[in-house]
Amino acid sequence: MISFFVNDKPHSIDAAPDTPLLWVLRDNLGLTGTKYSCGVALCGACTVHLNGAPVRSCMTPISAAAGQKITTIEGAKSKAVKALQDAWVKLDVPQCGYCQSGQIMSAAALLARNPHPTDADIDAALDGNLCRCATYQRIRAAVHQAARSMKG
Amino acid sequence: MDKIIDPTRRKFLKTSATLGAGLTIAFYLPVGAARMMAGQGAGKPFAPNAFIRIAPDDTVTVIVKHLEMGQGVNTGLPTLVAEELDVPWEKIRVESAPADAKLYNNLLWGPMQGTGGSTAMANSFDQMRRAGATARAMLIAAAADNWKVDASTLATQNGMVLHRASGRKASYGKLADKAATMPQPAEVTLKSAQDFKYIGKQFKRTDSKAKSDGSALFASDLRLPGQLTALIARPPLFGAKVKRIQADKAKAVPGVRAVVEVPRGVAVIATDFWSAKKGRDALQVEWDETGAERVSSAAQREHYLELLKQPGMVARNEGDAAKALGESTKKLEATFEFPYLAHAPMEPINCVVKLKENGCEIWAGSQMQTGDQATAAKILGIQPEQVQIHTMLAGGSFGRRANPTSDYIAEAVSVAKAVSHLNAPIRLMWTREDDIHGGYYRPMFVHAVSGGLDEQGNLVTWSQRLVGQSIVAGTAFEGGMVKDGIDMTSVEGVSNLAYKIPNLHVELHSPKLGVPVLWWRSVGHTHTAFSTEVFIDELAVAAGKDPYEFRRSLLAHQPRHIGVLELAAAKAGWGKPLAPKSGVRRGRGIAVHESFHSFTAEVAEVSVRPDGSFSVDRVVCAVDCGVAVNPDQIGAQMEGGIGFALSAALHSAITFKDGRVEQSNFNDYPLLRISEMPQVEVHIVPSQAAPTGVGEPGVPPLAPAVANALFAATGKRLRKLPFETFELRSA
Description:
The complex is a heterodimer of chains A (152) and B (731). Chain A contains 5 helices and 5 strands, in the order ββαβββαααα. By secondary structure, chain A is α+β, with helices and mostly antiparallel strands.
C-alpha cells in the first residue's frame, strides 16, 4: 500500500512500486485530465505538480509519491491556474487539446515563480511541452495575458 | 436571397413514411440522445432533421458528422446552424453524430462518412445552413399555428419567434413540441451574406473550456465497467509473422489476464495499461521474417534516384518539354528528396471495443466511420449497421486515423473477439514507440525537375519526374483516385501546376514496397509544393528576376493565386530590406500554392548563425478559402499548419535499416518546440466564393518559403527535407 494525497484528498493504492504516477492517476483514480503521450518525459503531456513543483508523471514511480501532495489539472485551483484557464479560453488556444492540461500545469509553475515572464522565460519553461497542433503562439500570448490579469 | 430546394427532403419524407407518423423524431435521435432526454423531464426535443435537436430548455444541440481532431469542426458547423436558426451561441451544444453513412455521409465522398481532405466545411456549408433554416421555418410555422397568424408576419430573434404586431413571443424550447408536428418545408430561404450575424465574425470555440480544465474526453480517457487494456506486440519488420510465442513470463505479471495471437501480432490483455505494458515487455515472440520487408533507406534512395533516370507514367503533358529544353538559353536541373514521416498525434492511437449480443460498440476518434464499421463487421461476421461507433474527440490525427485499412480498429476488434470469454470491453492502446514503428507513413519521395529559360528570361519549359509509393493503391480509394495508373495524391500540386508554362511534362513512378503509407496533412502537396516552389525560385534567380515578381508574371491568369501572393508580399514588406541583426545572416523567402481548393502564400524570414543553425523569425501568411466562416479559427489552422510543416522541415524523418525503423520516440523523431515557433501573422483574402478547407492548406508553402529565405540569406539551396543545416555554415 502506498499512501499519498491527490488534489488534497488522501489515497492509498495497492500497486507495484514502479507503476508510474500517470497510470495510477488515470487507471486507478480516474483522473484522466493528465495525458499519456510519450511515456518517457519527452513531451510534457503528463505534467502534474508534486508538492507544487512540475513533474512528468509518466516517469515518476508511485513509490516516489508516497506521502507527497500531488495536484492534477482537475484539482488545480490556484489563482495562476484560473488565470491561465481564462486566458486559454479567451484566446481559444486549444486545437485538439490533448496536450493542454500539461501546458497549463507547466505554465502555472512558471507563473508561481515568475509572475512577469518574458517570451524567452515562457519558451524556457514550456520547451518540454510538445504541441503537435503547434498552438505555441497562442500559448505564449495566453501566458502573458494570464500574467497581466493576475497583476490587475 | 438564394432559394434552395432541399434535395434530401424526399429521403426524409420516405423515411418518415416507413416509420409512421410521430416516429420521425425518434428516428433522428442520435446515440446518447435518450440519455439526454431522460434528464430533461417533460417535453420532447424537436428534431427537425438529423443535425438539430431543440430541447424544451431552449438548448440547441447540433449533431456534427465530422471528427473534431483540433481543426475546429465542432465550432464551425454549429456556427452555420446558429446563423440560419437564429439562436444565441450560448444555447448551442455539440454532439458527435453516430456512424451512419446514409444520414451523415461526406457529400464530397459519396455514400461514406468521413473527415479529411479539408472537406468538412466545404461539404457542410449548405447542408448545415439548410438544416438550421428548415428548423427555423418549422418553429415559425408552429408559432403561426398557435397564434392563428400568417407565418409571413413572424420574425425570429435570438432563439425566439416574435409577432411584432401583437408583441407576442415564444422561445424555441416552448415551441419545440408543436414544431415537431409541423410539415417540413419544401423550400427554405438561406440568408444573404450581408445579413450574416455569425458567419465571418470572430467566434469562440465550443471546446476551449473543456480542453483547458482536463474534462474533455478522448477515447483513451474512457473507463467502461470491467474494461481491460490491450497492448499488441507487433513484428519488428513489416510483413513478418508470429512463429512461436513464449507467454509464461507475460502471464505471470500481476494484472495480466490473457495473451492471445491476433492477425497483427500478439496481444497482452490486462486490468490496466501498466500491467499490459509490463506483460508485453515480458512476452517473448519469435517471428517468421520470411517475405518481410527488409528495406534500408540508403539502398532505397539509390533505387529511387535510379528510377528518376527512367521514363515513368505520364501525369501531364503539354507542348514538347524535351524539345523546348534543348532550345532553351538557360537550363536548370535539380533533385529533391523527402523522407518517410510519421503523423505522431499527441494522443497515441487507441480505441475501445465492446462486443454485444447483436453487434459491437466502438469508441474511437474515428476519421472514417463507414470504413471502420465495415472492417469491424467483417471480422465479427455481422452487418456494418450492427457496428455502433461513438466518435470521440481525437487528440490530433493529421490523417493517421483516416486509414482505409482501419488498422487499429481491426486490431481492437480482433482482440475483443479473441477474448470474448472475458466478457469485457477492450481498450486497445498504442505506445509512442508503437506509433513511430507502426507504419502508415507519408511516403518517401524523390523528384527530378528541369526547366528552361529563353533569352529574355521567360520560363518556356518544365519537366518533373516523381518517385514514391502510391497511398491509395490497393485501397477502396483506388478507383476514384488513380487515373490511368497515376495516383493523383502522388502528383497533386505539380500535375496541376498553376504557372503559365507553354511546355510542361510530369511523370510518375509508383514503386511497390512493404512499408505501409498513408495521407499525412496536405498529402502530395507536402512534397510537390516544396519542389515546385523552390525550383521556381531557382529559375527566377537564373532569370535575374525578383522571385515574387517572377511568380506574379507567371500567375497573371490565376486571380486567386495572385490575391494571396500579393497580400502576403505586401504585409511582409517584400522588397524592403530586413533589419540586420548582429552575428546572423538574414533572408526572406516566398512561396504560393493551391491545395484542397484553398490558396495560400507565405513569406518566411530567417536568421542563420555561423554554424548553419537558423531560426525562422516570422511567417506572414495570406489565405483565400472562400467565405471565411470563422476568421480566428482560420488563423489558428494556418498557425498550426505552419508549425506542423516547420516541424517536418527542421526535424522529421523515418528511416529504415534492414527493415527496422530507426526511430522510436520524440528523442529521435523530434517535433517542433515552442522556442522554435515563429511569429505568425495570418491575413485572409475577402471572398464570396463557397468555403473551402483550412486544415491542410497552411502546410505546403512553409518549407519552400523557408528554403527560399535560407537561399536569400546564404546563397545555398537546400533541396532535401529535413534541412541539413551544416550546408549553411559560413565559409
